[in-house]
Amino acid sequence: MTSRNHLLFEQSQQYIPGGVNSPVRAFKSVGGEPVFFQRGEGAYFWDADGKSYIDYVGSWGPLILGHAHPEVVKAVHIAAQNGLTFGAPTEAELEIAKLICQLVPSIEQVRLVSSGTEAGMSAIRLARGFTGRSKIIKFEGCYHGHDDSLLVKAGSGALTFGNPSSAGVPAETAGHTIVLDYNDIASIDAAFNQWGKEIAAVIVEPVAGNMNLVAPRTDFLTRLRALCTQNGSVLIFDEVMTGFRVGLGCAQGLYQIKPDLTTLGKVIGGGMPMAAFGGRRDIMQCLAPLGPVYQAGTLSGNPVAVAAGLATLKLIQAPGFYDKLSNRTQQLVDGIAIKARNHGVDFCTQFIGGMFGLYFSKKIPGSFAEVMQCDKTAFNRFFHAMLEEGIYFAPSAFEAGFVSSAHGDNELDKTLYAADKIFKNW
Ligand code: PMP
């Protein structure tokens, strides 16, 4: 019998380019056909053929509470009943803005948008408008959304396709983007020496999660902070992935570094399309209607999305939430690593809060170049074997993985059992 997944994929390819609405979903990197999903609950989701999977992707980060958390769903229901959108301010927007500012002290003012791409694009425009400069620095393998000036040597799907820059980005636009190596302090020093006073902004993932997971060297973020301060450049932390994922204070709380601007997404929308950018009041006040930098959105601060975000942000403030999440993540990755070691497979892992990296390599990579040396063929084999066992990891060797508060002992046991079986026959 032909699977419904397969039929849906075949038909989708006729109407949707590549059959998907975001490229990395297409399984191009790992080969095979994508799985179509119908329903999710807690740590599990079910495909179009009724097969269940333990989900370690969590919609690429938002689902820190697992699928369809009852309190988030309830908040969405209530908000929807009161009207789907007004295109005018609401009290709930004030509530979430206050909460974000409280939880992330570097954010004095915040504006809500609908995607991480919008947040990154707007933060860059704002930094340019504020400084009157054009050049920006980004790091190879970091992904900040698909804005033209940021789609240069980007990570995630852009890496998966071996297509670091996109067609359709004018050379003039990309020409303002200086791309450096993540964790390479000498190269940032050199760039600031050469262009210091022309640099509007440095944008960085404080933990890189779009080239697998690469942790920042201790002095990397500190040096960025110092150079931006010395040169009057805006330091932007892209915390779309790390925000409320690595800890309640985000990565900036973990590493005790105060960026000038921060972008947020994923977790703050609780699974609905919402993201945000915010930071220093003097910079944020350059935005329209107060200042000359234009930025807007019909559905920005959408009441249903805000309700999902607020419900999520309330639940993650429970005492011990992040300790439990980190412990679970550690048990998962340590457990898989032990199974690999027992069967002599070159494999290692690391985790930060609720995000993790899996590397088919002897050593944890600390740079983009080292990530590229990991054994991608081995990852693809592992991915498909685990998928067969009902364990869903990101369909690419260049993505971080995520654990939710709904992942319990049962799910860990099943995952480790599957990993053991696969590595035994490696
Ligand atoms: N920044 C980072 C660090 C991301 O991981 C992503 C998405 N994976 C984005 C920005 C873009 O967000 P979105 O897909 O919501 O546009």
Distinct bound molecules? 4'-deoxy-4'-aminopyridoxal-5'-phosphate
Q: What is the structural class?
A: alpha/beta
Mean pLDDT: 96
CATH domain fold name of the largest domain: Aspartate Aminotransferase, domain 2
Shape: globular
Please give the share of residues in helix: 25-40%
Number of domains: 2
| Rg, Å, rounded | 21 Å
Strand order of the largest sheet: 4-10-9-8-7-5-6
Give the tally of β-strands.
Answer: 14
- Any low-confidence stretches, pLDDT <50, length ≥5? none
Family: Belongs to the class-III pyridoxal-phosphate-dependent aminotransferase family. HemL subfamily.
Subcellular location: Cytoplasm
GO molecular function, one term: glutamate-1-semialdehyde 2,1-aminomutase activity
Modified residues (N6-(pyridoxal phosphate)lysine): 266
Q: What does this molecule look like?
A:
The strands form 3 sheets. This protein has a 7-stranded mixed beta sheet, sandwiched between helices. A 4-stranded mixed beta sheet has the order 1-2-3-13. Strands 11-12-14 form a 3-stranded antiparallel beta sheet, covered by helices on one side. Helix 2 packs antiparallel against helix 11, helix 3 runs parallel beside helix 11 and helix 7 packs parallel to helix 8. It folds into 2 domains: 168 residues, Aspartate Aminotransferase, domain 1, CATH 3.90.1150.10; 246 residues, Aspartate Aminotransferase, domain 2. The longest helix is centred in the C-terminal third of the chain and has 22 residues. It has 426 residues and is α/β, with parallel strands linked by helices. The relative contact order is 0.16. The radius of gyration is 21 Å and the shape is globular. The structure holds 4'-deoxy-4'-aminopyridoxal-5'-phosphate. 4'-deoxy-4'-aminopyridoxal-5'-phosphate binds next to helix 4.
